[in-house]
Amino acid sequence: MTSDQNLALYTKLSGFRLVVLANRFGCDTDVSRKLHKRLLEGLEAAAGRIRTIMALERSILAGDDDHAAYRLEGEIEILGRFTIILLEELDIDFDTHEYRINGGDWSSALTADYTGVDIDYPELIALTDDELGSLAPIVKDITCETGIAVSASRVSNIRCSGS
């Protein structure tokens, strides 16, 4: 992206941040407040990435840093994969058959009994527009206008630890 595109993206992210802040006044549940808080944090993190990219671009132009081009390439790649996670995150390691929720401890997805071994991973279920409430159109606009993905999902099919 060019410097102008980065500046435009930064401006859009800042505008969405203001929209979410204003929208937060209508929160009536803890879940809604949590969703707004996480979206604000995600927008601020994305804006921080853009600021870093713009600083590295300035450093390259000035010739201050020999490694700036390499770091810029990495920052651009990270921004390209950036996702704002509003509720829950699920990591699955298919090699070890383990999963973790929200960066917690790894749990085994294997169960065994007299019929054999079963692998049962939990799954993410996207929140509906009703569950997102007033954030639903904002989340869609963020993704459409900035290209930054927003994940609003909850984990389902969590097994008891004793099973």
Task: Describe this structure as you would to a colleague.
With about 160 residues, this protein is of the alpha+beta class. Helices cover about 50% and strands about 20% of the residues. It is built from five helices and nine strands. The protein has helices at about 5-25, 30-60, 70-80, 130, 135-145, and strands spanning about 85, 90-95, 100, 105-110, 110-115, 115-120, 125, 150, 155. The strands form four sheets. The protein has a three-stranded antiparallel beta sheet with strand order 2-3-4, with no helix packed on it. Strands 1-8 form a two-stranded parallel ribbon. It has a two-stranded antiparallel ribbon with strand order 5-6. The longest helix has about 35 residues, at about 30-60.
Q: SSE layout and pairings?
A:
Elements lengths: L2 H21 L6 H33 L5 H13 L2 E3 L4 E4 L4 E4 L5 E2 L1 E4 L2 E4 L3 E4 L2 H4 L2 H12 L2 E3 L1 E4 L7
Parallel strand pairs: 1-8
Antiparallel strand pairs: 2-3, 3-4, 5-6, 7-9
Helix pairs in contact: 1-2, 1-5, 2-3
Distance between the termini: 50 Å
Shape summary: flat
Strand numbers in spatial order across the main sheet? 2-3-4
Percentage of residues in strands = 15-25%
Radius of gyration: 20 Å
Uncertain regions: pLDDT < 50 for 5+ in a row?
none
Helical fraction: 40-55%
Query: How many strands?
Result: 9
Structural class: alpha+beta
Q: What's the rounded overall pLDDT mean?
A: 88
> Main beta sheet, described?
3 strands, antiparallel
